[in-house]
Structure prediction request, 363 residues.
Amino acid sequence: MKNEKEFPTYPPLFFVRITERLRRFFLRMNRRFTHPNMVLWDMVHNFWVAAGIGVVAELGIADLLRGGPRTVDELASETDTHPESLYRVMRMLATQGIFRELRGKRFQSTPLAEPLRDDQIRYILMLHLDPRHFQMFSKMMSSVKTGRNVTGEFEGGELFEHIGSDPKRNERFNRAMTNASWLQAPALLSAFSFNRYRKIIDIGGGQGLFLAAILRKNSACEGVVFDLPNALSRAGEVIGEFSLENRMETLGGDFFKEVPAGGDLYMMKSVLHDWSDEDSLKILANLHRAMKPGARLLVIESVIGKMNEPSFGKMTDILMMIAAGGRERTRHEWKALLERARFRIIKIHPTITPHSLIEAEKL
Prediction:
């Protein structure tokens, strides 16, 4: 493999669940003994912290600090920013453990700053903290009133149309999705046996990092990453990085029209949550048509948990509602949607990430 970036490593699922329960317990205790006014105020001002993270991510501050502490004047000079204003943002973030302020208005990196580096998950952080996201969330009331997404209100069209027509935005989006795959891949690979399937087709697989990770671990498998041509722009680089020229190929197309036939396993990661039930059924119908008898479907998505239980899916569901008109789904909703498309769920495989692997077969 050629200069391949190492994937992160995670503790076992049972350990993550225990620590998450402990975290929630102490959070509940903190809120129980804090006045509700202060709890809500604390939640609201997290918006300011998020905006500050977006600024330093865009400026690449974490990469500038990789060599050691720097003064704010040096950072401002290299980022073409106002020194005092940059200092005030950095000072705020240092209170959250993102950077550490030293004497003389100098700052150094911290473990919480490392994800902001270019070789970590900077692009997915920038995607979610893009000024357009703040615009969309400012119009949440419109979605609540109408039941429709708000993208058209200030962009004049649907979200993915705009992403595809803007080369810079398309590049950033695709790199963000690759960041997400890099973050999730180790946990997803440990939760499912991909080696049972000779040919794997990744529908909407973008630059192909997740499929490449699967093929690296399972040398008997080969695969196809299928997506719109503009989403596949860097897939060749990923194939070369993993030395998979003989086992992995790309194929451009539109999953609303057709998907390639001949796969033993079809998978879609973070695809169906972008779409309404009606649009999802169109995608699933094309999958059903292409799948041969005995082939399996793997839908990798959040599965919303019980009432009042904290859930990443309940958060991203709001983003889907506002931005794309899609939705996250409960176990019951996934079962109903897949049955309408003539699929039967065999098993839902949980992971330490917010995503589960929903294994299904065609009826």
